[in-house]
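Throughout our pipeline, every protein is held as a single compact record rather than as scattered files. The record that follows is passed on verbatim for readers who wish to inspect the format:
___
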Amino acid sequence: MTEQVTLTLPPDEAVVLFEWLTRFNSSDGQPFEDQAEQRVLWNLEASLESILSEPFRPDYAQILADARSRVRDKL
């Protein structure tokens, strides 16, 4: 069974993140339209950092490489 990570965002952050993702994915990587978008990403990073143990493990480089391999589209 694969463990799941539950992400809970305040509604305002969810809307800002959705807007940024929508715009970013439909454009050529435009910079942030509003600093709030950057703040949401910083807050998301901090939230993940507080719950994940993998980044602090000595074998993190391998954990990261394996995760990327599993997520990456198959060629």
Remarks:
- Residues 54 and 60 are 6 Å apart (CA to CA).
- The chain has three helices and no strands.
- Helices lie at 11-25, 35-51, 60-71.
- The chain has a mean pLDDT of 85.
